[in-house]
Amino acid sequence: MNGVEEVNMGDEAKCGGGGGGSRDGEVGAAAAAGVGLEALRKRMADFARERDWEQFHSPRNLLLALVGEVGELSEIFQWKGEVPKGLPGWDEAEKEHLGEELADVLLYLVRLSDMCGVDLGKAALRKMEINARKYPVGQCKGSSKKHTYYSSSNNISTNDNAETSLNANKEHNNGA
Known about the structure:
This protein has 176 residues and is mainly alpha-helical. It contains eight helices and no strands.
């Protein structure tokens, strides 16, 4: 594994280790229904700290773990063809497995954003605002075309993605 110890928070969380449920591993429907990103962030930080795993949670390691979990999520859909909304024909075991893999992806994403100092909720809301300007309802409703297809009169600020572009260029030029 190239000297990088794999730390799978998701599997530990499923065993009741404090990564997703209550201390005894049980997750009540009411508790799960109202969970927010900040609560997950705090739980994941506690989970890692209790196990002395913070030493392994560099952004790079977390990103690679996230990519691995996305691969596991992809395997569930592999060879199934187009899957309709609601997953008709899937049994409960398949849906439960899907939920576990989705949770693994979410938990690693939350942990990665925390280790990078990014407020994931704010970033997501900001991105939704940017996308709303890129894809105005009047121009793109019912269409799957990319935003570059639509006219430049969408009033997309050139600064909307400037910081992202600058950071990407900096990292590229620094070999990151």
